[in-house]
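User: quick one, fold this
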Amino acid sequence: MRTLFVTCLYSKLFGSEFGGRDSRDGHYKNSLKSLLKMSDAKFICYTSEDQINDLKSFFYKQNKFNEDQIQFKIFDLKNCEYHQKISELRKTQSNLLHDRCYEIQYSKFFWCLKNCDNSDFDYVFWIDAGLSHSGLIPPKYLDQTKGYWEKYFESELFNNKLLNNLIKHTGEQIVVCAKENQRNHWSKTLPKKYYNNYSFDRHIIGGLFGGKKENLKNFCNLFDENIKNVLNNETELFLEENIMSLMFFNNNELFNPLLFDIWWHEEDFIPGVDLKELTLKEKSFYKIIENLNNI
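Assistant:
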């Protein structure tokens, strides 16, 4: 089974018209380096023209990967199909999340769809480049023997066993990560009028999803239908995860979810919260990754 992971790395958007998080370059690069331990898969990473040479230097020269393992492609975010509409709505929203780039969020599905036509692959998944980090993964699964970047971003959990079990779990459906959203509220959802049967019990995460490429192609086309409907009828920008959550409840038969309750692990620190006790009752995100290693 030939597998492709699609991802992106745009770490210079902070303060720009697109919106993005500050000081994430090292995080994203070293996390993506960790994800490449799933070496039976190929990675395609979209990025900007002003970053591609730096990324090639980091991955090809410094860390000895090659184009059979990871390939970089330039995509100008202004070419996102929804850029003009996003720009219009940004101007009217004072409470918008400026650390999130909506062009990237919506382009995930365009990039996946584009690569579903590639005959070299049987499975296509999206994965966020920054997924491997100490905020999600506890120290016991991070490399504590090397330098700063490895200590916080290099995890043994991302490997070919995880890859194979992810494919098995997917089966004939689309795999998504679904967070509990009532006891541990994380996100609002779309207006009730968009739901066949309204629910916000689960919030779908945009960091990892995919499956057989024909199934993913249908999923991406369904996202396109839904986002166009929402953008044409709302004066508010919604996260791609809000659209995915709508799709999850309206088309539940399409999905085989990986369920979790909270982001935090037992070694995190939150003032006033006993995380060791909480994580005994609630399933941490990293348990999804851990379980896929132990099946």
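User: anything notable?
Assistant: The longest strand covers residues 202-212.
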